[in-house]
Amino acid sequence: MNIRLQRPHAEPFFLPADVGERFCLYHPPHPDVPLRGSVLYVHPFAEELNKSRRMAALQARAYARAGYGVLQLDLYGCGDSSGDFSDARWHLWLADLALGWRWLTQHCPAPAYLWGLRLGALLALQFAAQARPAPAGLVMWQAVVSGRAHLHQFMRLNSAARMLGTSQPAPSLPAKMSEVAGYMLAAELADAIQQAEASSAPPCAVQWLELSAPEQDAALQPASALLLERWERAGAEVDAYPLPGLPFWSTPEIAEVPGLIQATLAAMPVQAA
Questions:
Q1: What gap in Å lies between CA 92 and CA 77, rounded to an integer?
Q2: How far is CA 140 from CA 161, 172, 176, 195, in A?
Q3: Do 117 and 42 touch, CB atoms closer than 8 A?
Q4: Can you name the residues that pair with 41 across neighbouring β-strands?
Q5: Which of 83, 79, 63, 104 is closest to 18 using CA atoms?
Q6: How far apart are CA 86 and CA 184, in angstroms?
Q7: Which residues contact 10 (CB under 8 A, 6 or more apart)?
Q8: Fewest beta carbons less than 10 Å away: which of 77, 127, 144, 213?
Q9: Dmax (CA) of the chain
């Protein structure tokens, strides 16, 4: 007879904020393993959020089974949280992370980590410098190192879709607004993203995980390798893990990369809280 192991149930709730509420999903640490820590997930930008939900859920469950409490929080104007994306601002997102960080460290008193994907990794890096209590570590999945380049990439994709006739012509937009991959983006948020750079060394240990095309040898992108070298010269503790895998945040169909989940767990500290 097959016995199916029951996993702890993820707990959805809305966290009150200064403006509206933030949708949260908390994965409690498995009760039958030693408590190892807590993790706050920082999701990526625009449509990459939706494309990566499957992988984020799989990793959160894997963390929980390994003894971590994981909080997934939809930032203002994103997912099921309050607000429209057009009203989102970088400083509001930082405030959301502070809100989630306080909740997580109060409900799961253990070494607390930040885990960010794509632009979320860049946002987590900036938040790490102001987080209280200070993070025990920073897990960065396919981190964006330049907000300007990242935003330009979205704009190029949007322009290409219009040239190929696969998207609707842009309607007349309000002043100080632009369309990026189908999302209405305020000029204030666009400016903040373009100014965001992964230049300063993080205040905590970093686990940097980066995917290469499956048919290629796993290696860091040149920009990533140069950045991590600068961080290490500045005294940062950095471990990099290049591995093959599909870019699940942008594939046409929802994709899974089991190797990334395994590598992420293996990269975490082994000591219990």
A1: 10
A2: 29, 37, 32, 19
A3: yes
A4: 72, 115
A5: 83
A6: 5
A7: 25, 26, 27, 60, 61
A8: 213
A9: 65
Identity of the amino acid at 57: A
Six-digit token pair at 4?
Answer: 């199916």
Candidates 22, 106, 10; CA nearest to 60 is 10
SS3 sequence of 224-264:
HHHHHHHHHHCCCCEEEEEEECCCCCCCCCCCCCHHHHHHH
What digits encode the pLDDT tens for the residues 32-74?
999 999 999 999 999 999 999 999 999 999 999 999 999 999 9
By three-state DSSP, how is residue 155 classified? helix
Cα separation, 243 vs 169, whole angstroms? 39
Looking at residue 171, the DSSP 8-state letter turns out to be P
Q: Tokens in use for 116? A: 């960010």
Alpha helices in the chain (DSSP H): 47-51, 53-65, 90-107, 119-128, 147-163, 187-195, 222-233, 258-267
pLDDT of residue 42: 98
- For residue 214, what are its two tokens? 């499956």
